[in-house]
Amino acid sequence: MGWRRNGHKPALVGMAGPPTLWARKLEKVCGARGFGVFQRRDFCVTPTSAQEVMLTCERYAVQRLPFAEVSEQDLAFFERVLPGRVSTDPHELKAVNIDWLKMVRGCSKVLLKPKTTSEVSQILRYCNERNLAVSPQGGNTGMVGGSVPVFDEIVLSTALMNQVLSFNAISGTLVCQAGCVLEQLSQYVEERDFIMPLDLGAKGSCHIGGNVATNAGGLRLLRYGSLRGTVLGLEVVLADGLVLDCLTSLRKDNTGYDLKQLFMGSEGTLGIITAVSILCSQKPKVVNVAFLGCPGFSEVLQTFSTCKGMLGEILSAFEFMDDRCMQLVESHLRLSSPIKENPFYVLIETSGSDARHDEEKLTNFLERVMDSGLVTDGTVATDNTKIKMLWALRERITEALSCDGYVYKYDISLPVEKLYDLVLDIRSRLGESAKSVVGYGHLGEPRGRLHLGGRPQLPGCWRPSPVAVGRQQRSVAPNRPARRRTSSATASPPRPSCSCSASRPCWTPGAS
Amino acid sequence: MGWRRNGHKPALVGMAGPPTLWARKLEKVCGARGFGVFQRRDFCVTPTSAQEVMLTCERYAVQRLPFAEVSEQDLAFFERVLPGRVSTDPHELKAVNIDWLKMVRGCSKVLLKPKTTSEVSQILRYCNERNLAVSPQGGNTGMVGGSVPVFDEIVLSTALMNQVLSFNAISGTLVCQAGCVLEQLSQYVEERDFIMPLDLGAKGSCHIGGNVATNAGGLRLLRYGSLRGTVLGLEVVLADGLVLDCLTSLRKDNTGYDLKQLFMGSEGTLGIITAVSILCSQKPKVVNVAFLGCPGFSEVLQTFSTCKGMLGEILSAFEFMDDRCMQLVESHLRLSSPIKENPFYVLIETSGSDARHDEEKLTNFLERVMDSGLVTDGTVATDNTKIKMLWALRERITEALSCDGYVYKYDISLPVEKLYDLVLDIRSRLGESAKSVVGYGHLGEPRGRLHLGGRPQLPGCWRPSPVAVGRQQRSVAPNRPARRRTSSATASPPRPSCSCSASRPCWTPGAS
């Protein structure tokens, strides 16, 4: 369910004694390193075809810890607990051993598909007693290699834990199992006039449990806030099988320490999330999207300030991208810009309850920014098809970037006023060695989120300047749709011959 | 900084070894009891005058743990660290030993007033080594007895830690010391066109550190969400003096476990919050308040549903109160209802960016609910003075309740559709033994929050039905303004002669 900060996500079971947990906790907090298999293992992003993905344990000098190996007796036990839902089929296992970016590969020989919390608990208790390593997996849409085994860990998939447990149509509280696919939950609540508080490109495949385990942000953060506020409760199974029931539906619950927060963003290292209680918002009646061109990044920032003041409560998204992003989506995906060429583009979404009011606010805002020269060109969409077309220009940048060559992607938080300096600095530093260095992302946060993507001329030759990268906030959210997986795999280049030290590849991958 | 779930807030230092901490944590999570001094100590609410407050250690059979007593050498050390900011003045100590409701009293002999995190760290490290107990204190506005010592703990006040450290006018991120008074922070950010994400009746006295330590909710929760989403970072000093720097300003930070969440709502039991980073929202340009009368609670709920649909993004508060609440504020505080008598009253606040749009939305909504009979009478205020007058009817119910007799107050979360049944059940159960049983609170949450207040005819004779009380969510938030403290103290009745067992008083107090 994601990649840990300083290296591979450890297998859950068998490492879960309190001292180890606390050591890992400290490692996370203090950035300490040197915990054996948990040492920092930077590596190249190498989108190769499935059959060519090198085993993680061959590519990196990671050592398997002394876990037991799965025996026939173990399989028999699993089969008793999960009749017909224990797989050792090599074809089925191939899919769960390789991450979506096809950069890491485990060699698990067992896939377990529980349907209930009780089954998860029985499996973990047994594995803990038998010293068998377990790797939890949701939709396997993560882009940082954390959702697949490193060695032969048992893959515990939440795919069959896909039941909605309850929905309160007055409060909008949805309680569901962890394996529910985000898009299916969205459809479920939208039929009831609500929307999920998060939306991601990967919604067609990603599981709500994985979203929570990786503390995914997504496109609705500006309006509906983070999962830390909208997730009301969790049910989690710990490594020894203990079920921690924090599945409250209270928005504010001060009856004890808020333990569930520890599991959000912990990426399966503390336990397996089995159920989620989440607060859905009333579905907005009207949505508008404006796509605008700006002459410079300073104007993008001023447009953002003006926008916050004039659109206020109806503003639901503010995204930006530079001209090179537009060139990439135009050339590789044959999308076309609806406006003339500009150094920067801005996508603004409004969501409100009154079409005329929203249109008036948007019109007044557009007049202001056009008159003041902050914006030189723009278009507005109100119907759903056109809105999706405009969103595609922003959402598919990642896909366009990966259409040829090797891609390094980072998800970085910086003060908005300094956000784009990083792209200029990296561009200047890399010079001719990179085909392109692009910047795009959200401005609707206290600090802007920059998706820095680059395509080097030669694979494996970048080394980031720690100063330039600054405070890196790696997103571990699964954020690519399943429908694009095939095309990306088809278009993927051959495995690179990395020019760096084999044991110390060259850059930490980020998410897009 | 609040009262713990199962009894007195423990002194921080000297109890802070990991096993004890984990025992207390489990106690909180599992509701387990029997940890010596941490046993459940229910008691009566007894608003008596200052000189009559019985010592907590005399009223309840709590035992002082074997902490050291403050010596002359200790005082000399404190004086070196905090020159001129160590008080042993009995008059000054009286104020910090007694809680605002005047129901519990400690007998601390030392008050320390650090100005910096480093000073807090030095004090805690020293006290930890010397085995001296410490009780942290913010604005001492809490209503559940948790902000004052139980025995002779050293009171560590955050009153002089009142500096704004930074404010980012683009993102709205405020970083300040824990002792900043909420109202002063509100004024500070409002001058910069932002508002604090929380508002409380006690804002004139309460400290932001105490707000966070008690995970205060308040009147803006519906629109701006809980502190779990808006608090971006914390700086905390642990019991051994270690400074935990989680003072990030990132809205989403996935670089490790979100440890700061553990301190939110932990009421000083895990450490002392010394600084807070909090996300402020853009100040709304227009605020309207409607005060409406409804014929029944069912109509209150339907008004709420209609309101959410028609006011949508501009809805910022939805409060209700019953007719007995109105009678109390009218008779005791000489406030007058602006509308005719109704079984229920609703206060709706809207906050938006366009006066005409908001007025139109509100008008359409009011026409709908009046035409459909959900609302039988109402008034709308747009200017600040009238808005404050309408809010006073709701905000001062607690004050009115405490004007005569003994008051038991609870802050309860229940599904909104069942919310008022509890008041009816309690009323029926208590019959003539209670002067009044009232219900009021927020509906703008997934589950409604009911403030249940009652005045028994005889003090100390109520025993709640566990079934009726259901899931009790005690608010430990300080939520009374300092300006009302004097009048309440003046009007307070004599100490009751509780008819219950002296060692097991009769009811757990809640907050209003």
From TrEMBL, chains A, B:
Residues 469-512 are annotated as: Disordered. Residues 487-506 have a biased composition (Low complexity). PROSITE patterns: FAD_PCMH. Residues 103-283 form the FAD-binding PCMH-type domain. It comes from the Eukaryota. It catalyses: (R)-malate + A = oxaloacetate + AH2. InterPro entries: FAD-bd_oxidored_4_C (IPR004113), FAD-bd_PCMH (IPR016166), FAD-bd_PCMH-like_sf (IPR036318), FAD-bd_PCMH_sub1 (IPR016167), FAD-bd_PCMH_sub2 (IPR016169), FAD-linked_Oxase-like_C (IPR016164), FAD-oxidored/transferase_4 (IPR051264), Oxid_FAD_bind_N (IPR006094). GO terms for cellular component: mitochondrion. Its EC number is 1.1.99.39. Signal peptide: none annotated. Keywords: FAD, Flavoprotein, Oxidoreductase. GO terms for molecular function: (R)-2-hydroxyglutarate dehydrogenase activity; FAD binding. Coiled coil: none annotated. Its cofactor is FAD. PANTHER family: D-2-HYDROXYGLUTARATE DEHYDROGENASE, MITOCHONDRIAL. Catalyzes the oxidation of D-2-hydroxyglutarate (D-2-HG) to alpha-ketoglutarate. Also catalyzes the oxidation of other D-2-hydroxyacids, such as D-malate (D-MAL) and D-lactate (D-LAC). Exhibits high activities towards D-2-HG and D-MAL but a very weak activity towards D-LAC. Belongs to the FAD-binding oxidoreductase/transferase type 4 family. This is D-2-hydroxyglutarate dehydrogenase, mitochondrial.
